[in-house]
Predict the 3D structure of the following.
Amino acid sequence: EAQVTQNPRYLITVTGKKLTVTCSQNMNHEYMSWYRQDPGLGLRQIYYSMNVEVTDKGDVPEGYKVSRKEKRNFPLILESPSPNQTSLYFCASSLSFGQLDAYEQYFGPGTRLTVT
Amino acid sequence: KNQVEQSPQSLIILEGKNCTLQCNYTVSPFSNLRWYKQDTGRGPVSLTIMTFSENTKSNGRYTATLDADTKQSSLHITASQLSDSASYICVVSALSPGTYKYIFGTGTRLKVLA
């Protein structure tokens, strides 16, 4: 089954304790992205990756890191989590990011993170 | 500044009725526009995708329109069902050299009542 998986689905942690949220897709997609969703603000892009070893900042990258060492995986790293990073996080992937062709973007099930 | 604005913020309708959701955007350079349906706590699911050359796109009871000149889009839901209760999100792609971003609206929360 074609899908985007995220782990963990729920996480409660304390301020300053490094954590990683994993994201994996089995569709051989080039484009992968991380978003956070907060009430009243909608989804905001954190980082995206056009392909292996190619990553770039979205609109809210502060406090986050990513890596793309393999095509299928795109982990999100919080080196020193703070309470303002409490949010619902989504990973997504698409075949590519074209101008004339609009590629379907598939979302993972989400990771609900609470930082106390 | 790239922005996507949706209206109304929330909407309540009776089962079987039609409704139309609006999306205005100021994204440049425009690449394409998408409508997603998101159930509470779950990932968004794509309904339609339109490039700048497309005026309308249908997916079952969902029909999206796009006016690239006025930078407006609408999503029309026909004969609503209880399962249509969800948030509907308009997303515009911004594509320029070295930049490949998605700009999301804050969504319209639709509630369909029996």
Remarks:
- Chain A has no helices and eleven strands.
- Chain A touches chain B at residues 4, 31, 33, 35, 40-45, 48, 50, 56, 58-59, 88, 90, 92, 97-102, 104-110, 112 (CB under 8 Å).
- The mean pLDDT of chain A is 93.
- The longest strand of chain A covers residues 42-51.
